[in-house]
Amino acid sequence: MDFKKYLLVFFFFVTIIPAYPANSGSIKGKVRLEGRKNYSSVLVYIEKVNGKFAPPKKHLVMDQKNLMFHPKILPILVGTTVDFLNSDSVLHNVFTPTECAGSFNLGTWPTGEIRSHTFNDANCFVTILCDVHPDMQAWIAVLQNPYFVKTTQKGDFEIKDIPEGKYELKVWYPFYKTVSSEIEIKAGSSIIKNYILKK
Questions:
Q1: Region 59-85: what's the mean pLDDT?
Q2: Apex CA 33: angle with CA 29 and CA 37, to 5°?
Q3: Number of structural domains found in the chain
Q4: What distances in angstroms separate CA 185 from CA 29, 108, 146, 167, 188, one per listed residue?
Q5: What are the backbone dihedrals phi and psi of residue 93, each rounded to the nearest 5 degrees, phi first?
Q6: Does residue 15 sit within a domain?
Q7: Cα separation of 33 and 196, whole Å?
Q8: Which of 125, 143, 161 marks a domain boundary?
Q9: Are residues 40 and 91 in the same domain?
Q10: In which domain, by residue range, is 167 found?
């Protein structure tokens, strides 16, 4: 193979084949909620990873529709701005008593309008409420790093591309006891862990 052909082959593999993070592994498994058959939206996350992680430039959205917050549980990276949209035909309000989020009250606004808030404190689990409709409730989990995921309806989860190291993995869902476990991630490996959350 001459030098030009070698370069063509080299650049083909560099541009076409995706680059996977070196020295990383993954964790996957299932989570079950005691007393329930739907195991969706359980938050599985690594509590702390060395380094700083830039929040997304694009705002995330928590909608208010059919007198409910959507999504009910929203995990975000610290520093993320969330837009609170009112898609209902009635007035809605957004406030929280959670101190690590600043105990803010964004006021009350009509259909189609948005109010925003930036969450700057990590490891803060924020209860979101509506002053107009007391039954409405949601949660925003402000996390230190991007290694988190919500479970599927069957309780499946997988977190990929985790750097090598020892970590504290946590499994959280409102009104259930949080489960913690120590895990060790090794390059190229995939850990399998299953959890049961109790009320």
A1: 98
A2: 100
A3: 2
A4: 14, 46, 16, 8, 9
A5: -130, 155
A6: no
A7: 6
A8: 143
A9: no
A10: 21-51+149-199
Percent of the chain with pLDDT over 90: 89
CB atoms within 10 A of CB 77: 19
Q: Is the pLDDT of residue 140 over 90?
A: yes
Asked whether residue 171 falls in the same domain as residue 195, the answer is: yes
Length of the chain: 199
Same domain, 43 and 107: no
Instruction: Report the predicted TM-score, pTM, of the whole model to 2 decimal places.
Output: 0.88
Write down the pLDDT at residue 11.
Answer: 43
3-state secondary structure of 109: strand
Residue of 129, 133, 128 whose CA lies nearest to 90: 133
Averaged pLDDT score across all residues of the chain = 92
pLDDT by residue (tens digit) across 33-50?
999 999 999 999 999 999
**Tokens 């957004």, residue located:** 94
Q: Contact at 8 Å (CB) between 74 and 82?
A: yes
CATH number at residue 189: 2.60.40.1120
27 part of a folded domain: yes
Residue 14: pLDDT band (50, 70, 90) is very low
Q: Which two tokens stand for residue 190?
A: 């995939």
Shared domain for 159 and 90, answered yes or no, is no
Examine the pLDDT at 129 and tell me if it is beyond 90: yes
CATH at residue 66: 2.60.40.420
